[in-house]
Amino acid sequence: MNLGYRLAYRLGFTPWENAGRSVFAEQLSHLLDAGPSPGVGATALDLGCGTGEHSIDLALRGWSVTAVDSVPLAIERARDKLPTAGADVTFVLGDVTHLPAYVDDGYTFALDVGCFHGLTDEQRTAYGDGLTAVTAAGAQLLMFAFSPGRRGPLPRGAAREDVERALSGWTVVADDALDTSGAPGLLAKAGPRFFRLVRN
User: Fold this and answer.
1) Alpha-carbon distance 197 to 200, whole Å?
2) Which of 86, 97, 185, 192 has the greatest number of beta carbons closer than 10 A?
């Protein structure tokens, strides 16, 4: 999967970046507003951050943000945005299935906009173990994922049961369908959802 993302960024074909800025940006903003409020020293983790749009948004909301992606070009472009964005984010070139090797611990919030749903079952288990290891008890995770299904170039998707299996140390407290009224047909048919989880 990583090779595909590397090629996509190299070719400039990144429709998921556009969707995050337009199709579901408003709903994501509302969900972030409804989540935990950043206090002094509150730390957030952006998983599969791409070029950093959501990472920067979190920082502007008051979080101290660390963002991880495995595509060098995506991280490079994310870092290039910081001088004009007016935000302070630590962008890390790393693997979300080995989080303790790349980031500190004690995070109280994590955001995943389309990362988990593209991983294999084995990678999902490693992702869950690593995320549990680097977050504090009571931490929240907000995750965007397509429903399972084969849709050509789109990620394989993830059902609630897949999320619960991989994140056994967490509890799903909300499961909301994406408002697809303004979404392109392919995205609407993918059954996108937002899951909110709390670490036990």
Assistant:
1) 9
2) 192
Regarding the domain delimited by 2-199, which CATH topology (the fold level of the hierarchy) does it fall under? Rossmann fold (3.40.50)
- What is d(CA 198, CA 99) in angstroms, rounded to the nearest whole number? 18
In the chain, what are the domain boundaries?
Answer: 2-199
pLDDT tens per residue, the chain (200 residues)? 465 665 555 656 565 566 556 678 889 999 999 999 998 889 999 999 999 999 999 999 999 999 999 999 999 999 999 999 999 999 999 999 999 999 999 999 999 999 999 999 999 999 999 999 999 999 999 999 999 986 666 789 999 999 999 999 999 999 999 888 776 667 778 889 999 999 99
Start-to-end Cα distance in the chain: 30
Residue 120 one-letter amino acid: T
User: Using H for helix, E for strand and C for coil, what is the string for 152-180?
Assistant: CCCCCCCCHHHHHHHCCCEEEEEEEECCC
In this structure, what token pair is assigned to residue 157?
């998707």
DSSP 106: -
Number of Cβ atoms within 10 Å of the Cβ of 39? 9
